[in-house]
Amino acid sequence: MGGAVRRTRAGRFGAASATETAKAEDDEVASAEVGVSVGASAMGGAEDEASGTACPYTAAKEALGLAPPPPTRRDENGNPAMVDNVSFLKSLIKASQHPVGMPIAMLDWAAEKGECVGIKNAIGPFCVSILDPEIVEYVCFTNAKNYRLRMLPDAFRYVIQNKGITGSDGQYNRDHRLMCQKPFINSFSLAEFSSTVEERIAHMCNTWQQAHAMGGGKPYEINIDYDSQQVTLDVIGKVAFAYDFKRCEAHEAKTLRGEADEDGNVSKLLAAYNGSSEIMGELFITPGPILKLQNFLGLGRVRELKEQYAILESVGTKLMSERRAIVKERLAAGDEEDYCLLDVLVKAKDADGQPLSDADLWGDINDIMAAGHRTTASNFTVNLWHVARYEHIQEQIEKEVAALGGRPPTFQDVQEGKLPYTQRVVKESLRKYAPINLFPRLAEGPDTLPSGHKVEEGDFILLSTYAMGRNPRVWEDPNKFDPDRFTDEALYAQAEKQASAVARGDPAKLEQARERMRRRMNAGRDFTYTPFGAGPRSCIGGVFALLAATTMLASTVQKFKLSKASHSKGAVGEELNIMYDTTICFPEGVWINLEPRERPLGA
């Protein structure tokens, strides 16, 4: 693995060349794969290939036939690995009792049978559970055209009517992904978004500072999960449709002056997002015909779910109407810039050359709001909890932030590689606590996976960001929080390790696999790390999410010393108490202490 690695201007972990990465790949797949460019090889530009040979120890073990069993194994008769009915039922029972759910079963199957296993389902389609990065790559990139369909709960499709980039398929989905991706890779839009993030986190920090002073100088204890949601709702509101929900102001009024939230509509909106996610989690496996019957009879929670979505749509429709008028005025004045996602969509045309309908606009905006709000908030929460817990991690971030000279951190600092360790903390949080635990796919036609499993149209491909992030073969001591997993050296070592697993002792295959792993990593398509999903249905806001989370973390550490709360509520030892509905959530909150610094670091 020797040889120096030359950095680009943005650095190995920057975001400056997300656009170049997309352009370098196949247009149809890459255009929808911007979120993947924030994977293990980050969002940065390409580097020169590192020179060197295979690890001598690994090579020797392979030559002697002593290498560990390959990640994807066959049974004693040479057939693709299958989970027997007894193991399947045991794992399902365990998963049903675990707050993380199905990914726990997937990890069990991987340990018992290998990282790609088939599951015969007596009451449903054949299923293949995949953790092996090679086969994840096959499904999400090599043969992605056969696996574009996303497995969604019927409850979701029932209420959104197949609109939005999450609930739609086919050409409609591809067209809308291209539209919605635009502001997240546009330099002007990203600069606008950076200003929003900087201003909103600064406002929240000011509230924390004043609350600390009111407490007589004692460490200020907060539920960072709650506060994070207020910040990120403001941010996503501005990003999605340039609307300021003023959640930071409302939080300030409540915290410092005990004032009730005067904007009932915004409170209803936030409650509707959280409530609909919770209900969706409960109804995840309920078939469509049963949903319709329950709705007709007024049974179950289907009617409540539709009511929550009606609230969201009513608020959204009003905001869209206001924004249409603003965009029209700006265009008349010669201003064609996109200040938010809605600006892009208002100016867009459908396949017939007509403006998008309100239903089309709302489907896309709702997706960005729902996906971007809670996922960004949860990552910010996890980041601060770990920094508060580990002094050595906080010290490393402090050094980077101090080098900025006291000015607020920006997206540009992240893009230019000035906060590499801080960004590694964010990535490690995403690995260990993936915002979304599953990103399953459906086969559109017959195929044979590299594992030998044969799939037919409608068969179910089970993929999990959570399980991949906790895969002990890929990640040594996966439950340990270690940001240095994402140094260049560690990533190249991981690529070497994966290449050895793929080659299975064949020297010719080893060299081919090594080169491919490095190219894949440099292109931002490392399928060992998929916090934003992978392939044509990956998160289009992954670039923005990583930039925002890194900037917010650096801004907080610049102004506060973080420490553990005096109690253990919300955590069990080194693990947070989590559960998943549609995204990760924290049933007991996440608690930390904040103590303002005398002056910002570096000032």
TrEMBL record:
Its cofactor is heme. GO terms for molecular function: heme binding; iron ion binding; monooxygenase activity; oxidoreductase activity, acting on paired donors, with incorporation or reduction of molecular oxygen. InterPro entries: Cyt_P450, Cyt_P450_CS, Cyt_P450_E_grp-I, Cyt_P450_sf, Cytochrome_P450_Monoox. Residues 1-10 have a biased composition (Basic residues). Residues 1-31 are annotated as: Disordered. It holds the Pfam family p450. This is Cytochrome P450, E-class, group I. It comes from Ostreococcus tauri.
